[in-house]
């Protein structure tokens, strides 16, 4: 009798001591197969821990996601526990995110230090890296061969080749063919594309790492005027409204010679149902007048909301999804670039996702957007920049005039300090 009582007591203690299954929510943006891929990993987490995770699907545009997150966080929203965050947001959202320094202290060292540093604000680790991003120039091997052209190494060569191949294909009855597609819509993606045109032309990074406004210079103006000359000649007029998935749509149906896009587009373009399967490859972006190529540094991270009522499980999930196993599965499934350098030596990744293996140095040498020096004002800085670029490409003012105005606006935004 006493024995049975003791056993029951032990069982009861054990049960209350064991973690109860909880339900948490993660917010994830929908580009390519990211949401599907996330669902697969969340199912594995559920199986391993018993906790269930719901996905809130966010819009594709990084800018729209940022606006929504900012609203939710300023309203103290308890419904989202984990946010998938863009690499540029750390300084702007830091105040409402949990410090992950202590919970991640055994795993941070696996990641590239620069990435961890980009997510550290005043000593607080506000997010853990899920994957990095650095763009590629996708090109149609078959069309360049057919028309006897080389892969372009400079923007000038790209424009010339795009025009020749596009016009020849159109003359051959391929009326829908375009020379070049990229991200020209007025949103964060255009800041990335235009930073690449400007930086590769020797025009700097909009705002220097020391916080100085440098964008109003002749090299930057020339880069914008060059992009303006593409619209309606090698790029469709509609490119002024394209984000990543719109460019991929044109490219993947076979209607573009070149595309600027992130690595996620590679396995999608190579899939069995893709009309461009086996007909393309990808190389680093062309160089500008400076003679070097510039790739914008992108990437996504996971952060825990300070308003979460399930912080322990949320942290466990972040650890799981940013682990080497999880990053490897993500690289294999969607070509998302690992932030754990050791994975670039992984033979399975090298075999199944050759772009990932080749992209380590492109990612390590990528150009950051000025989110660190402009701190909480980065979003406004970027918005002013992409507006000036989009206007120039639409023919409203030239590069020099629009960059002069931009400098004035940025000075007003900065006042004495960022
Ligand atoms: C990619 C990048 C991200 C960037 C976005 C712009 O998702 O990873 O950093 O802000 O593109 O569209």
List keywords for this structure.
418 residues, alpha/beta, D-Maltodextrin-Binding Protein, domain 2, 4-stranded mixed sheet, 11 strands, 13% strand, binds alpha-D-glucopyranose
Q: What structural class do the secondary elements suggest?
A: alpha/beta
User: Under the CATH scheme, which class of the largest domain?
Assistant: Alpha Beta
What small molecules accompany the polymer chains?
Answer: alpha-D-glucopyranose
- At the fourth level of CATH, the homologous superfamily of the largest domain is Periplasmic binding protein-like II
Mean residue pLDDT: 95
What is the β-strand count?
11
Number of domains: 2
Query: What is the strand arrangement across the widest sheet?
Result: 2-1-3-11-6
Distance between the amino and carboxyl termini: 73 Å
**Regions with little confidence, pLDDT below 50 for 5+ residues:** 5-17
SSE string, helices as H and strands as E: HEHEHEHHEEEEHHEHHHEHEEHHHHHHHH
